[in-house]
Write a structure and sequence with these properties.
Length: 236
C-alpha cells in the first residue's frame, strides 16, 4: 500500500518541478539580446585620403533604456601620456585621474560644460571628476603640453571603441529601433538608424575629420597662454 502511495505522489512532484523550468526558458528567449558588429573608415580633413589607422573612435547607441553601470572609470597618467588616449564615459560616471609617474601632473579642462583645474599632485595620488552631460571633452596637463585626453560621454553602456582596423562590437543589445552614432578624436562623426532583431553586421560608416593633428596639439595652458618650452628629458 505504501509503495502505491509513493508512486502516486512522486510523479506529481516531478511535474511541479518541471513546469517552472520550461516557463523560465521561454521567458529568457523573449528577453534575448544581440551583438552588433561593424567598422569605420575615417578620412583626413578635406576628405581625400584616409587616416593610417581607424582607432581612437567610439561607436554607441542612442534610444536604449539606461541600465546600471559601475560608478567609477579610471585613466592613468604614465610616461607623460594619458592612457587610454580616448576614454568613453557613461553619463553620470566619475572619472579618476591616476598619476603613475614620478613627476607631478596638473590635469585641467577649459570646456564650458565641465571646466576644472585639479592642481598639481604626485605619483600614486589621484583626483576625481564627475561627468553628467553627454558630449566630447578635451583634457590636458598644464605642465606637459603633449598630454591630451579625449573623453566622450555617452548616454548608456551600449558602446564600443574601435581597433586600428576600425572594427567594433557592441554586445547584449536588446531588440529595438536605435540610432547608431560614431565619433573620432579628430572631430569626425556619423550616424545611422538601425533596427536590432538579430545578431547584425552593419554597413561600414564613413567619418570625415574636422581637425588635423597640429591643430589639436597646438593648445594653450590653463591660463590661456602658450606653454613654456623645456629641454628637460623625461626620467620616469
Amino acid at each position: 500500500m505504501i509503495k502505491r502511495l509513493l508512486l502516486l505522489i512522486f510523479p506529481v512532484l516531478s511535474l511541479s518541478l518541471i513546469v517552472p523550468v520550461s516557463v523560465f526558458f521561454s521567458q529568457s528567449a523573449l528577453a534575448e539580446n544581440f551583438t552588433l558588429q561593424g567598422s569605420l573608415k575615417i578620412y583626413k580633413k578635406g576628405g581625400k585620403k584616409t587616416l593610417r589607422h581607424f582607432d581612437n573612435a567610439v561607436v554607441y547607441l542612442e534610444g536604449v533604456s539606461m541600465s546600471a553601470v559601475e560608478q567609477l572609470v579610471e585613466v592613468d597618467q604614465r610616461k607623460k601620456k594619458f592612457l587610454p588616449r580616448l576614454l568613453p564615459v557613461v553619463q553620470g560616471q566619475i572619472v579618476r585621474f591616476n598619476n603613475m609617474d614620478r613627476v607631478e601632473h596638473n590635469v585641467f579642462s577649459t570646456e564650458e560644460k565641465n571646466s576644472f583645474d585639479l592642481g598639481r599632485y604626485p605619483k600614486e595620488d589621484f583626483r576625481d571628476r564627475p561627468y553628467f552631460e553627454p558630449g566630447s571633452y578635451k583634457i590636458y596637463c598644464n605642465i606637459h603640453k603633449a598630454m591630451i585626453l579625449d573623453i566622450l560621454v555617452v548616454p548608456n553602456r551600449f558602446y564600443a571603441a574601435t581597433n586600428k582596423k576600425g572594427e567594433f562590437q557592441i554586445k547584449n543589445v536588446p531588440a529595438g529601433k536605435y540610432t547608431l552614432k560614431a565619433w573620432h578624436i579628430y572631430g569626425g562623426s556619423a550616424e545611422l538608424p538601425i533596427v536590432v532583431k538579430q545578431d547584425t553586421k552593419l554597413e561600414q560608416l564613413i567619418l570625415k575629420s574636422t581637425r588635423v593633428v597640429r591643430e589639436i596639439k597646438n593648445h594653450l595652458n590653463k591660463y590661456g597662454k602658450k606653454y613654456k618650452r623645456s629641454g628637460s628629458r623625461y626620467r620616469g
